[in-house]
Amino acid sequence: MAYPASYKYTKEHEWIAVEGASGTVGITDYAQGSLGDIVFVDLPKVGDALEAGKTFGSVESVKAVSDLYSPVTGTVTAVNEELKDKPEKINDDANNTWLLKLDLKDASELGALLNAADYEKFVSEETGH
Amino acid sequence: MRYLPKSPADRQEMLAEIGVDSIDALFETIPAEYQLKHDLKIPRQHSESEIIDRFRAFAGNNATGYASFLGAGVYRHYKPVIIDSLVLRGEFLTSYTPYQPEIAQGTLQAMFEFQTMICELTGMEIANASMYDGSTGAAEAMMMAVRVTGRSKAVVARTVHPEYREVLATYAQHQEIPIAEVGYAANGRVDMAALDAAITNETACVMIQSPNFFGTIEDVAAIAELAHSRGALLIVSIAEAVSLGIVKPPAEADIVSMEAQSFGVALSYGGPYCGVIACKEKFLRQMPGRLVGETKDADGKRGYVLTLSTREQHIRREKATSNICTNQALVALMVTIFLTVYGKQGLRELAEHNLAKAAYLKGALGADAKILFNGAPRFHEFVVELPISAEETNAALLEQKIIGGLPLAKWYPELGANASLWCATELTTRKQMDAAAEALRAAVPAELTRA
């Protein structure tokens, strides 16, 4: 399956993996495929406060710059420094290339996100196939 | 540009194709009361010979044979004839930036060379393919600093060109960027104590001009150190590009915004000119405007592309780094040709020539007037305190076909009605300067002369 069942998803094509009160955020395989070759990722700093549904950065491919939306509210605890030099890792393996980690403020927000099956259905409806 | 005439039959065919009866039907959405039902009140058509006569008569109103000592952001320099003969070629002659860029490799190569030369001149790492002019370039640089630092305020020296500051205020009012202005010291340079006091932890940038509006060269390194120590960026605006032939590049700056009119662009009543922004590479993604990059094609051959267009409005819409989605392609080409013709050594000699002319002019005027701000180095402009008002002086000089310096009281009332800004370039002759000094002496009542 293209979308791990243990992750939760947003309609803006981010995924979040949650362990206790800590979340790890990336973009989906569908998102990387639509963007094409990714050349730059603009991420927040450790300690920045993110709000569910608000932009926290952007990802730039050779054809577009897309905003990144936070799946949940929380505080950034780590950003993936490796992406500064190797943003193409997202294209290689979107499911296992994380952008940032954060401490969740309110775990109940996860209930508003999609599970893998619903996300896959959402993508197929959006793309029409 | 091809002229494509349309016959009535062509029109009917086009209207039929889109399913409209008449051209008037295209304007039906405009309420009838606002539709123009009569002809415009303009003269009927003229024959070609009548038009030529008419424009010859207009051209006769131009002032010719005058000596001018005006500078203040627009500079008279020699423009090699090769510039017009090249830019008028059909392959180059469009006033617009390429929107299907890769098909125009020659244009892109010229812009790439422009960017390269601007970097070498300014001491910056990257430069864009040009902006509208020096004033809008300065405003874009200010907004760029706000994006880079995440701070919201700007500190601008009062010795930045007064009209640039008006443009800054226009941009700043809707971007909600408060601007604090900082005055000048007795030597004409930025008042460092006032600058120190004006910078806060909300200051995104300090903007200075060098040579400044009075012609004085700023201590860029000291100002950079102060700005950086407070977490603000330093923007250096350059209105007289020829100064870079001899003045050290402002490499300590974070962003340089420049007006390149001096490099082969005609005065043309104020435009079109050629602004440019150059900066440190780390600010690349926050830089507005077009950017040409060099790359290799599928066969490994060198080619040029517009790069990082994803920052721009036609792709990123309201989140673009700037509303600028264009450049001054043709004017930037004039600049590129000028710099190619002069070269490094030629530009240095040109700058030295300007310095020497300004030194002679200072000496000639200095006999009857006081030269202000002598405590710091200058390029080819300087402030003069005349024995009588600048307006009176200029009226007297104009009768001798001499256009005197720019009266400064409008922008710097503290300098008084007698202060004016004079400029000499390589085109200013010794004869003109002697004549100006003589006309000044004649205009001053005997009891006011210094001798």
Walkthrough of the structure:
The complex is a heterodimer of chains A (129) and B (451). Chain A is α+β, with helices and mostly antiparallel strands. Chain A has one domain (9-106, 117-122): OB fold (Dihydrolipoamide Acetyltransferase, E2P) (Beta Barrel), CATH 2.40.50. Chain A is built from 4 helices and 9 strands; from the N terminus they run E-E-E-H-E-E-E-E-E-H-H-E-H. Chain A has helices at 29-35, 82-85, 89-92, 116-127, and strands spanning 8-9, 14-19, 22-27, 38-42, 49-50, 55-61, 65-69, 74-79, 100-104. In chain A, the strands form 2 sheets. A 6-stranded antiparallel β-sheet of chain A has the order 1-2-3-9-8-5. In chain A, strands 4-6-7 form a 3-stranded antiparallel β-sheet, with no helix packed on it. In chain A, strand 1 (8-9) and strand 2 form a beta hairpin. Chain B has 2 domains: 67-77 and 344-448, Alpha-Beta Complex (Aspartate Aminotransferase, domain 1); 81-338, Aspartate Aminotransferase, domain 2 (3-Layer(aba) Sandwich). A 7-stranded mixed β-sheet of chain B has the order 2-8-7-6-5-3-4, sandwiched between helices. Chain B has a 4-stranded antiparallel β-sheet with strand order 11-12-15-14, with helices on one face. Chain B has a two-stranded parallel sheet with strand order 1-13. In chain B, helix 3 (81-87) packs antiparallel against helix 10 and helix 11 (390-399) crosses helix 12 (430-443). The longest helix of chain B is centred in the last third of the chain and has 38 residues, at 329-366. The A-B interface holds A 40, 42, 60-65, 67 and B 285, 310-311, 315-316, 319.
Arrangement of strands in the largest sheet of chain A:
1-2-3-9-8-5
Order of helices and strands of chain B: HHEHHEHEHEHEHEEEEEHHEEHEEEH
Query: What profile does the largest beta sheet of chain A have?
Result: 6 strands, antiparallel
Name the CATH architecture of the largest domain in chain B. Answer: 3-Layer(aba) Sandwich
Helical residue percent band of chain B: 25-40%
Q: Distance between the terminal alpha carbons of chain A, to the nearest Å?
A: 16 Å
| Share of helix of chain A, binned | 10-25%
Rg over C-alpha atoms of chain B, rounded to the nearest angstrom: 25 Å
DSSP strand content of chain A: 25-35%
As for the number of domains of chain A, it is 1
Q: H/E order of the elements of chain A?
A: EEEHEEEEEHHEH
CATH architecture label of chain A? Beta Barrel
Output the CATH topology of chain A.
OB fold (Dihydrolipoamide Acetyltransferase, E2P)
The DSSP helix count of chain B reads: 12
**Shape label of chain A:** globular
Oligomer: heterodimer
The DSSP helix count of chain A reads 4
Major protein interface: A-B, 9 and 6 residues
Radius of gyration over C-alpha positions of chain A, nearest whole angstrom: 14 Å
